[in-house]
């Protein structure tokens, strides 16, 4: 999807915000080229009704890995 957005649709920057405690997803996004920007504190409500942090990540088009 990232490749399609960068190559075909010519986006120059992508941004995602997985749950801060979702280590497996974060590792996967880093392999594609996303970098952590910072924690978005209490940015999403979980199934338990409580607020949870997310990790803001971004990637510039030239950082997309093969």
Features:
2 helices; Aminopeptidase; 66 residues; alpha+beta; 3 strands; single chain
How is this structure best summarized?
By secondary structure, the protein is α+β, with helices and mostly antiparallel strands. It has a single domain (2-63), classed as Gcn5-related N-acetyltransferase (GNAT) (Aminopeptidase), CATH 3.40.630.30.
Q: How many strands, what sense, and barrel or not for the largest sheet?
A: 3 strands, antiparallel
Strand content: 35-45%
CATH architecture title:
3-Layer(aba) Sandwich
Reading the helices and strands in chain order gives HEHEE
Q: How far apart lie the N and C ends?
A: 13 Å
Task: Quickly count the domains.
Answer: 1
Strand order of the largest sheet: 1-3-2
Instruction: Supply the CATH superfamily name.
Output: Gcn5-related N-acetyltransferase (GNAT)
Radius of gyration, CA atoms, in whole angstroms: 13 Å
Report the total helices. Answer: 2
Low-confidence parts lasting 5 or more residues at pLDDT below 50? none
| Helical coverage, percent range | 25-40%
Q: What does the oligomeric state look like here?
A: single chain
CATH topology: Aminopeptidase
Structural class: alpha+beta
Overall average pLDDT: 94
Shape: elongated
